Amino acid sequence: MTTDQQTKTKLSFTAPVDALLEASSKLLAVVPAKSPKPVLSNIQFSVRDGVLEMAGTDFVAGVYYAIPAATVRGEGTGLLNGARFSEVLKEFRGVDATIVFNPRGGCQFKAKGGSYKVVGDDTRDYPKTRRFDDMTGLDMTGAELVDMIKKTEFAAAPEESRNTINGALVEHKKGRLRLVATDNKRMSITQLQLETKFDDFSVSVPKEFLRAVLKVTTKDVAGKPAVLGVTGTKIFFRLPGATVYSTVLQGNYPPYEEGLGIKLSYHIDCNIGELLSTIRRSMLVNSSLAAFNFTTELLSLSGMSSAVGAGDSDMATGWVPPEGIERVRVGFNPRYFKDALEAMTAKRCRLLFEGPRKAGVLKELVTAIGPNGMTEMVSEKFVYAVMPALLPREV
């Protein structure tokens, strides 16, 4: 391969292997191990403003990631297979590596303990992707979006279902940012109020975008300023030293507002860890169906399966059923509640319920300073609804 474009590259640099490995792991969130277009299995190396940058994409989502620890000696571009490059790096942790790209393709890799000549693909075949360096959007922090994603992405539908619910709805209206995910059996809604005059938008984004944001938002940048924006058919999230972007999904997201307006007659307030432990114990019998029995000051989860048998998992509550009602019994998939409880950041929550044909709803409880000192309040920043399941009589 001796094209004019290739003969111009003089890219070479020295960088800590640990920094390259960390970057590679983040890029592999979008770089496919196998693809109908093999060039997409590569990581692209280039230099921007004197800083080494690694990039990857699967044509739908992509990541740019800067490596300020690298010492750049020559500029240009180069490609290396992402999975194979990561495997090499894992064997050279704790040392520096020098990589010199060959004008005819590939590179030479040198580090203490080894030297390799690596085959590379033609840089002309790699897609030209859009930059978002100067784009404006919603000002927030990485930690804020990460928290919202962690509380929604698990509720998104599997890939084989409807396209628009394979990821999440990202919606901004008059300073209120919402993320919504559903698989039609449960729905998770998170929201954040922002001080902004940025234009409203409503787009569906794929799981690859959500997972890539989680990958690149490391502890050192989580609290720093970040920007979330939409331009044309693209959504992007820009952090110091990293940008995640994606093409938005086509089609209309299903209405979600009913999930915010669910009115239920009863509730219990409890410690999240205690409720989570109770649910996990019930899953030892049946991980996909349990009878939630609410009786006087007790929540009992009953399960049955042909493989294990039957069992009850109990937790004390302060709930007292109204006169004339001995218990409220509702069937739920306990794993659905487990997913949400594990994503919560509060210590306590409210579980709302009513009957066998009604959804169950989880919300976080937060403490706030009121006229009479500290008080516990229900937060509407996270609303999680689970549809009921049909119970056999003997459960």
Structure description:
The structure is a single chain. With 395 residues, the protein is of the alpha+beta class. It folds into 3 domains: 4-125, DNA Polymerase III, Chain A, domain 2 (Roll), CATH 3.10.150; 138-258, Roll (DNA Polymerase III, Chain A, domain 2), CATH 3.10.150.10; 261-386, DNA Polymerase III, subunit A, domain 2 (DNA Polymerase III, Chain A, domain 2), CATH 3.10.150. It contains 9 helices and 25 strands. It has helices spanning 4-7, 17-27, 82-90, 142-150, 207-216, 219-222, 257-260, 272-283, 334-343; strands at 12-16, 42-48, 51-57, 61-67, 71-74, 78-81, 96-101, 107-111, 114-118, 138-141, 168-173, 176-182, 186-193, 201-205, 225-231, 234-239, 242-247, 266-271, 290-295, 298-305, 309-316, 328-332, 348-353, 360-370, 373-386. The strands form 4 sheets. Strands 6-2-3-4-17-16-15-10 form an 8-stranded antiparallel sheet. It has an 8-stranded antiparallel sheet with strand order 14-11-12-13-25-24-23-18. A 5-stranded antiparallel sheet has the order 5-1-7-8-9. Strand 2 (42-48) and strand 3 form a beta hairpin. Helix 2 packs antiparallel against helix 3 (82-90). It starts with a helix and ends in a 9-residue tail after the last strand.
